[in-house]
Amino acid sequence: MYMRSDFAALRVRKDVNELAKGTFTCPQARTRVEFPDGPNNMMHLIFTIAIIDLSGPFANGDFTFFVDIPKTYPFHEPGIEYALNPAAAEQLHRNPEQFKSEVQRILCGGRFYGIDFPSHPRQIEMQRQKWGLRVKRPRDDDSPAASSEWDGMASPNASDAIGIEAPVLMDCADGSAWKRTRIE
After folding, report:
1. 50 forms bridges with which residues in the sheet?
2. Distance (Å, rounded) from C-alpha 25 to C-alpha 42?
3. pLDDT, tens only, 82-99
4. Do 80 and 68 touch, CB atoms closer than 8 A?
């Protein structure tokens, strides 16, 4: 005799297989499903949704959802905690364009509505690429004086000598919305 939890696991497996086949996907987003406890526990899932559509307020956003499915599923829907910020909901209702701009700024990281948001991983990587000093450093056995490669060039540590520091992260909170390019 099957138990109710067995039916729930079978239903979750069916739903996840349909999701993996692309049945529930759309051209505006990509989804990924992970099982942190392995395939033996399909009642605990991590869904990652990458928004591809550039016209909406959540453009280029990656969102992760941790889902614990009750053993009574599909007989009772999973409970959803409604965590929408009332100030953000009011702004969305009052001025949708300003809300869209604000969401893009939040995706860049910073403090909004009294909540600290981390910088998006793609933004951090872009800054590392943009501000990284790509100067050939001499090895211990090479010295700039002995190599003709360094003739007429600044020392590889010249930026240290004149006190130039490259910023680690771009502060995009005060500027316009920053559009990230997807890294595949």
Report:
1. 30, 62
2. 20
3. 556 677 778 878 888 888
4. no
Picking from 74, 80, 78, the residue whose alpha carbon sits closest to that of residue 5 is 74
Measured distance CA(16)–CA(23) in Å, rounded: 10
First to last CA, the chain: 47
- Residue 9 is given by DSSP the state H
User: How far apart, in whole angstroms, are the C-alpha atoms of residue 108 and residue 59?
Assistant: 12
pLDDT digits 0-9 by tens, 158-174? 433 343 333 333 345 44
Residue 143: both structure tokens together? 């010295």
46, HSE (Cβ side, Cα atoms, 13 Å): 9
DSSP letter (8 states) at residue 26: B
Per-position DSSP letters for 142-161, written without gaps between them: --TTT-GGGTTS--TTHHHH
pTM of the entire predicted model = 0.46
Closest C-alpha among 173, 167, 84 to residue 120 = 173
